[in-house]
């Protein structure tokens, strides 16, 4: 993806010129948060911070970008000269990738001269929104699978190539076992997984010839797609090929079912292999699956060993967007809030304080002001100072382990796939008083 400074909304730049003209360029703090839960969500998984920090560190306008802006005849020459030297000089506090968070909690807070913090809004929302949405969806799929592995098959259906890469990364962070996306495997060190398509089977004179050809090329990791014509006949052909492989000293890894009544087919195919004394041949399910299907299969003990989950995970099909906002909460040391109907914000630089139970389980969060000292773990950490990252990014595997530990501590009722319980999130007395004080001042004019 091109991390261009032009990857922003026009109004960010028009506001920036107005700020510049008025020399209205003081320090501002913007807070990114999600106002409400999408249907059946009770938590979010933080993802996308690495891309945001890389963008902020490299933020600048090059000559060709400035030439383009000049050609639009919207911007003054002195403002364009100002943009030529513009870099992000501020600080960033954020929830690390892999952590669980909840609605209203600040995910990222950026403090910088207002022009800098304003222009980067669009990119910050874009990256955190998609990757958090997908990481949350993937976490739900993995949880619903009940211990069976889930692989990202979404690349062909994601909304563009950049989304396909971020889906692979975010889903692996949130517990998926691998991806079909070879470039993502290379770039992010994610295990790559794949079988065959129906076209491969159809191109041969018979299904069993296709299976034999594939097994000959991949004698140690063959997985056969058995539903091109008749799933049960395909399973029987797979048994024949598996026996032929065994005589050569090789072993069939598994078969994939991609259509039809997946639960009934899985039971019947499992019986075919068990009757052939091939109990270790795995059955992989795919074809329009999501966490609701996986939960049903797990509760009914359908004999799938793993799943390939594509379209509905890669687009977060049941909840393809969240109500994410980036709001000004402080300017020149003055706390601010928005009072729009249904969109009232919380003022000031903030921190989230997380309390745990005696067994380490997540118990409740308190959103307070950053300068408060409250009980519990402080969730936001300083990740950028003076426009430079405070430390090297954690590896994807390190963030994945953070997620695993955090998710294990989340109460089961909050993880529920349908109608989850609401995790307790409170606002500190000091923050609540500040909000009331500012609201009263605004009401008095």
Summarize the structure in words.
This protein has 2 domains: 10-134 and 319-444, nicotinate phosphoribosyltransferase (Alpha-Beta Barrel); 195-285, Aldolase class I (TIM Barrel), CATH 3.20.20. Helices cover 41% and strands 18% of the residues. It has helices at residues 10-22, 49-58, 63-71, 77-84, 114-119, 121-144, 161-173, 182-188, 198-202, 207-217, 231-247, 262-275, 291-299, 311-314, 396-409, 412-415, 429-444; strands at residues 27-34, 44-45, 91-94, 100-101, 108-113, 149-152, 178-179, 223-225, 254-257, 282-285, 306-309, 324-331, 334-335, 350-356, 362-369, 377-378, 381-385, 388-389, 425-427. It has a 7-stranded antiparallel beta sheet with strand order 13-12-1-5-3-17-18. Strands 7-6-11-10-9-8 form a 6-stranded parallel beta sheet. It is elongated, with a radius of gyration of 26 Å.
Name its key features.
nicotinate phosphoribosyltransferase, six-stranded parallel β-sheet, 19 strands, elongated, 445 residues, TIM Barrel
């Amino acid at each position: 993806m091109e991390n261009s400074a032009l990857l922003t909304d026009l109004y960010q730049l028009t506001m920036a010129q107005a700020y510049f003209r008025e020399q209205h360029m003081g320090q501002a703090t913007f807070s990114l948060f999600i106002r409400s839960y999408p249907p059946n969500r009770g938590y979010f998984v933080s993802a996308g911070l690495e891309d945001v920090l890389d963008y902020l560190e490299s933020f600048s306008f090059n000559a060709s970008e400035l030439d383009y802006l000049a050609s639009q005849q919207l911007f003054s020459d002195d403002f364009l000269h100002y943009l030529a030297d513009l870099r992000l000089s501020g600080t960033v506090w954020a929830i690390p990738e892999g952590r669980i968070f909840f609605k209203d909690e600040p995910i990222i807070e950026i403090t910088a001269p207002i022009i800098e913090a304003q222009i980067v809004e669009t990119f910050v929302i874009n990256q955190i929104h998609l990757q958090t949405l997908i990481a949350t969806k993937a976490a739900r799929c993995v949880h619903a699978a009940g211990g069976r592995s889930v692989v990202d098959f979404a690349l062909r259906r994601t909304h563009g190539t950049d989304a396909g890469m971020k889906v692979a990364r975010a889903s692996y962070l949130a517990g998926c076992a691998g991806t079909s996306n070879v470039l993502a495997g290379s770039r992010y060190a994610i295990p790559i997984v794949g079988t065959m398509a129906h076209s491969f089977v159809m191109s041969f004179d018979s299904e069993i010839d296709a299976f034999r050809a594939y097994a000959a090329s991949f004698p140690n990791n063959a997985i056969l797609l058995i539903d091109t014509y008749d799933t049960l006949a395909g399973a029987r052909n797979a048994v024949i090929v598996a026996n032929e492989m065994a005589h050569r000293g090789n072993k069939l890894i598994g078969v994939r079912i991609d259509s039809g009544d997946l639960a009934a087919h899985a039971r019947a195919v499992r019986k075919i292999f068990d009757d052939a004394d091939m109990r270790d041949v795995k059955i992989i399910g795919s074809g329009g699956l999501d966490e609701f299907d996986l939960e049903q299969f797990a509760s009914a003990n359908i004999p799938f060993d793993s799943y390939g989950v594509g379209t509905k995970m890669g687009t977060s099909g049941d909840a393809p967007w969240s109500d994410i906002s980036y709001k000004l909460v402080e300017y020149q040391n003055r706390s601010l809030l928005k009072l729009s109907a249904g969109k009232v914000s919380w003022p000031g630089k903030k921190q989230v304080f997380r309390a745990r139970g005696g067994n380490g389980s997540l118990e409740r969060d308190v959103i307070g002001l950053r300068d408060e000292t409250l009980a519990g773990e402080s969730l936001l950490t300083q990740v950028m100072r003076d426009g430079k990252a405070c430390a090297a990014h954690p590896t994807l595997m390190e963030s994945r382990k953070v997620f695993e530990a955090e998710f294990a501590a989340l109460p089961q009722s909050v993880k529920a796939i349908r109608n989850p319980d609401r995790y307790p999130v409170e606002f500190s007395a000091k923050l609540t008083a500040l909000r009331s004080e500012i609201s009263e001042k605004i009401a008095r004019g």
